[in-house]
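User: For my dataset I need records formatted as: sequence, then structure tokens, nothing else. Please produce one.
Assistant:
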Amino acid sequence: MQTVYIVTPVFNGATFIDRCIQSVLSQSGAFRIRYHVQDGGSNDGTVESLEAWKKRVKNRSIPISCCDIEFSFSSEKDASMYDALEKGFNVFGDAPADAFLTWINYDDILLPGACALAATLDEQFEKREVAWFTGMHNTAHLDGCPTPLWAAPLPREIIANGVADGLLAPTVQQEGTFFRRWLWDSVDKTQAFGELRFAGDWNLWRLMAAHAPLYQLNNMATGRFSRVNGQLSQGREGYTREIDSIVGRSERIERHRTLLQSDNLHTPTLEFGGNGGEFRRSQRPETSFSLLYLASRKVPERLNDYQQEIAEQKAMEAEQEAARKAQEAARKAQEAARKEQEAVRKAQEVEKEKLRVLNEGKAQEYDRIIAKREASIWRVPYRLWKKHVKRRRG
């Protein structure tokens, strides 16, 4: 019987963590769930919620619709969400190489049937035939109302070349993406995550695509991304900046142009056959028009504007760098002025000390002269008296 391994990284997520955990523990089907929540040292009540969920699972005080659930959590400081994610997956040291893994962030949810789908695909296909898969894009607004589903054209080459960046091509939706343990192990986590805070999933998918194609489910969603104020995943500027630091934007544009000219791009898909719940693999051909992501939302000429956009971005970066240098120069000038004032102050103190020593020396000399004079005054009368005494005796 298959076991699906799931991790949730969280930090101060008390508002949404219960909803996320419920979406995992309510999965139904003939499989087991090994679920671990990796907390980053929350202080808002998240840990207390995790303790309560652990007791519920242990006491079976909640309905369980799969064969078995093992729930655990740990709470310790981490360097980032991806550091927590890696720590969480390391808990599954005994997971088989062919087991399906996934992670769901604390403010997102797994949709019903996601784990059952992973177990079904594991049974129907050879372990290396489907190494990882994802569903259609599914997003919910702040009020929880979901948006329409849509399928993203994601040929393996698009992902592997880093073009699936949300600008040139759609991103791979992390929520509901499942992958084999061996595929996770095949990627160097230091290379994948490094010091990234926003675009770690983009880089992970890029590196995974070098080892195996991503299969996309037609007309099915397996996870839902929830738009929440303040979440890291809404930091589009930071997300794009981190991607640019790994694969430059101009390089991605050139790669995209080259891929658009190819006549041999296909999106690996999993289509539901309808007979006994069987799926079949297929390759959906993609045309240059279907891959023109921004053109589908704006105009075809928009792609040609990227060079201008890059030039504007470079000009803005140059202005920011010039401003930074000007601020640094001003800071150095202020520091030099401060040091000069300090030098003048020290020189004045030295002169003051010299004058003090000089005055003190003069005062001591004056006291010595006065003392000598006073001694002389007393010696003169004594000599005269002694002389006077001798005369009288004589």
